[in-house]
Write a structure and sequence with these properties.
Blueprint lengths: L10 E6 L1 H4 L8 H16 L3 E6 L2 H9 L8 H24 L5 E6 L9 H13 L3 E6 L6 H5 L4 H11 L4 E6 L20 E2 L4 H7 L11 H13 L3 E6 L6 H5 L6 E3 L6
Parallel strand pairs: 1-2, 1-5, 2-4, 3-4, 5-7, 6-8
Antiparallel strand pairs: 7-8
Helix pairs in contact: 3-4, 7-9
Protein name: Glutamate 5-kinase
InterPro entries: AceGlu_kinase-like_sf, Asp/Glu/Uridylate_kinase, G5K_ProB, Glu/AcGlu_kinase, Glu_5kinase, Glu_5kinase/COase_Synthase, Glutamate_5-kinase_CS
Keywords: Amino-acid biosynthesis, ATP-binding, Cytoplasm, Kinase, Nucleotide-binding, Proline biosynthesis, Transferase
Length: about 270
């Protein structure tokens, strides 16, 4: 099989989840966010075109409003998202500006990504990138409550759709797990990381949380869905642990990390 040269991946979508951005307390992991921004800024300066898909608005909103437990009712979650999105963008704007980079906010819903509307998003994305800014994308949870009510990582699918829309070369999903394992690593000490997935088979779906499996609670099933979207769009996808954002450099140094889902059966 042909080897994939990651150094040639120019337009890259990076998705970070709430678990990457916060401590177990739910409060912001300041050191990790600073490392993330510094690494992304450096990759942008190296010639990559970075698009950041970032969760975290609801968590930041909770902290800002002094709500200790995750709200059970949707309107309160919407309010947290509205307040937290301001905090999230303020944070990114301040941190990226330290490296002389501008950021732009794009709040999307699945309805905006329908065929008759997505050209507007595509045009905006391309122009923002042409102007040297970093688009920061999130689902508009204040008005689109699907993800809030399902409480599942559909920002994975959002990131995949954004990658296709932007004609990206690579999507990197930073999670709280190293990648896809052959069995649940929380239950089995002998679970082994699967480094490359050339084809998304029924077996792969089952491992990730399909029928007859209990692994879906870890959010891997939504990542497989994202991988399918990317594969159909001809885009490679990597799932990696977001614990140390500096490990993003390994991707572009062609060093093995996480699980690579290849678009064309390459390795």
């Amino acid at each position: 099989m042909k080897m994939i040269d990651m150094t040639k991946k120019k337009r890259v979508v990076v998705k970070v989840g709430t678990s990457t951005l916060t401590h177990s307390t739910g409060l912001l992991n300041i050191r990790r966010v600073e490392q993330l921004v510094k690494t992304l800024a450096d990759l942008q300066n190296a010639g990559h075109e970075i698009i950041l898909v970032s969760s975290g608005a609801v968590g930041l909103g909770r902290a800002k409003l002094g709500i200790k437990e995750r709200p059970k009712d949707t309107p309160t979650r919407q309010a947290c998202a509205a307040v937290g999105q301001c905090e999230l963008m303020y944070l990114y704007d301040n941190l990226f500006s330290e490296y002389s980079l501008n950021v732009a906010q794009l709040l999307l819903t699945k309805y905006i990504l329908l065929e008759d509307r997505k050209i507007n998003v595509q045009n905006a994305l391309n122009r923002i990138i042409e102007l040297g800014s970093i688009p920061i994308v999130n689902e508009n949870d204040t008005v689109s409550i699907d993800e809030l009510e399902l409480e599942m990582g559909e920002n994975d699918s959002l990131a995949a759709n954004v990658a296709v829309l932007a004609n990206a070369d690579l999507l990197i999903i930073m999670s709280d797990i190293e990648g896809l394992f052959d069995k649940d690593p929380h239950k089995y000490d002998d679970a082994e990381l699967i480094p490359v997935v050339p084809e998304i088979t029924e077996e792969i779906k089952a491992i990730a949380g399909g029928a007859g499996s209990s692994l879906g609670t870890g959010g891997m099933a939504t990542k497989i869905k994202a991988a399918e979207i990317c594969k159909n769009g001809g885009i490679d996808l990597i799932i990696m642990n977001g614990r140390d954002p500096r490990h993003l450099y390994k991707v572009f140094e062609n060093k093995p990390i996480g699980t690579l889902f290849t678009a064309n059966g390459e390795v």
